[in-house]
Amino acid sequence: MYEVVSWLLEIFSAMFQGYCLQYFFGSFQEGRIRNRRIGGLAAAVLYGVLRLGVGFFLPKGYTSFWVIARLAVILCIISVAVLVFYRAVGKITLFLIVTFMAVGEMSFFLAHMFFELGNHLFRLWDWCLGNGYIQSLKFYNFVVNITIIGNQILFHVTGAALLYFTMRKIVRDYREKDYAIHKTELLFILTPGLAGLMVCTLLRVTIDTAESGAPELLYDRYPSLIVIVPVILLLLLFSIVFGVKLFQDMICWNREKSSRIILENQVGSLQEHMREMERVYSGIRGMKHDMKNTLSVIMQLAGGKEEELQAYLEELNQAMDRLEFRFKTGNTVVDTLLNMKYHEITHTVPDLQMDVEGLQFPEKLFIQSYDIGIILGNALDNAMEACRKLKAKEPDAEAFIYISSFQKRELFFLKVENSFDGRVVRKPQNEFPVTDKADRENHGIGLANIKSTAKKYQGTMDFKVKGRVFILSVMMKNEKED
Q: What CA–CA distance (Å, rounded) separates 315 from 317?
């Protein structure tokens, strides 16, 4: 019975490792098989079968040669499974392979510690038999067999649990899975895994010792290692997990820093354009006033004697009345931004329909104009880029941007709708759509900037897609701060 249970546990362990492998790699890389479930199942089964084959064909010895050979074979198995089922390209693949191997080895040895502690129960049963607490030899054999089976189950379940929860923690902490990792960063997150792998290799080589020609476990010769080794392995395991978390935090800090720099540049640009637009507004108002007076004098002098001249001057007077900026909402920052962006987009999309009739602001607006400008600026940049791409693909397609807003109690709502080609690339772990620009570190943060600005006013941002229309909604609290 022990042999049957042992084989079943070996099969369970190998297949569960296969499951962890497909979960780990599938969270980072795109599968070659479209059906994710079938691809994951195939990867798990292939790895499990190959792993069982390693245990069956390779000797159980712990000499240096066989330990290194075993690690090399496992490395090949993982690489084959990854290359067959995943589009494994890039530096991140090396990190995934090394980390999976290291966590698997450390989980094995940590589980082995529990196994060794469980072996001490046999001494308890021997003591009970010797002191008459167990009187039946049959019952003694039964208890020993149950302990052996229970110890094996504990060993495999503990190893599987450590492997799974560590993989799950790494997957959750590694949020920026599309980030293009650099060589120095790769070395930073690889080092803990490599160190753990080397320690486990050392343990496999030295775990069996010999005293006067008799085999002896290292733990029997140095009992303190039962405590020291697990502590070292746990520290190495934590270093892998926290190394990943620290790396991801560094990416977020750098991204926030870049985002702040972009926001500062946007504010500076808005201020500069506002000053320029104020000068233009003042110049046009003065010119319009002077011209209207001049036209009025000329028309009086014409006195109706020259009908053609008077008709021409009346038409010119009407043209002066129309000499205004295209968009006027009453908010200087918003007017500046809308006219500037419209002038910019009409160079590439001359037939763009831009409607801001629904954009209205309450009389008492406690949201800073600069923050509204940041939100509208990023939203317009995204909408304009989407319209450009649409017209590049389909020149006859209708390109439009509609902006509207309204106040409901203390909440201010802003909505931007724009046409686009209908293609949105999203990944399960990402909150926002993935940018298709090459420089992903400095692009694709417009929606993040909008959400960050909305949070200043206890607000939020949401977006949805209706066919080929992208709808961005922003909600903010419009109330005076105490």
A: 5
- Residue with tokens 């650099």, as numbered in its chain: 182
SS3 state of residue 277? helix
Q: How far apart are CA 312 and CA 297, in angstroms?
A: 14
pTM over 0.85: no
**Exposed e or buried b per residue across 393-412, where buried means at least 16 C-beta atoms within 10 angstroms of its C-beta:** eeeeeebbbbbebeeeeeeb
Integer Cα distance of 210 and 221 in angstroms: 10
User: In this structure, which amino acid lies at residue 65?
Assistant: F
Q: How many domains are contained in the chain?
A: 2
Digit-coded pLDDT (tens) for 287-327: 666 666 666 666 666 665 566 666 666 666 665 554 456 77
66 touches 54 (CB < 8 A): no
At residue 422, φ and ψ (nearest 5 deg) are 85, 0
Examine the fold and report which residue of 260, 293, 315 is the final residue of a domain before the chain moves on: 260
How is residue 134 annotated by DSSP?
-
Q: Which residues constitute the domain of residue 346?
A: 326-482
Reading the block at residue 109, the tokens are 């040895």
Domain containing residue 443: CATH number:
3.30.565.10
Strand partners, 331: none
Burial class (CB in 10 A: 0-12, 13-18, 19+), 267: middle
Separation between Cα atoms, residue 418 and residue 468, nearest integer Å: 9
Question: Taking the C-alpha atoms of 176, 177, 181 and 186 in order, what is their torsion angle to the nearest 10 degrees?
Answer: 100
Beta carbons of 445 and 258 less than 8 angstroms apart = yes
pLDDT tens digit sequence for 228-273: 888 999 999 999 999 999 999 888 888 777 767 766 776 676 666 6
CA geometry: angle 187, 188, 192, nearest 5 deg: 100
Q: Compute the distance between CA of residue 104 and CA of residue 222 in angstroms, rounded to an integer.
A: 25
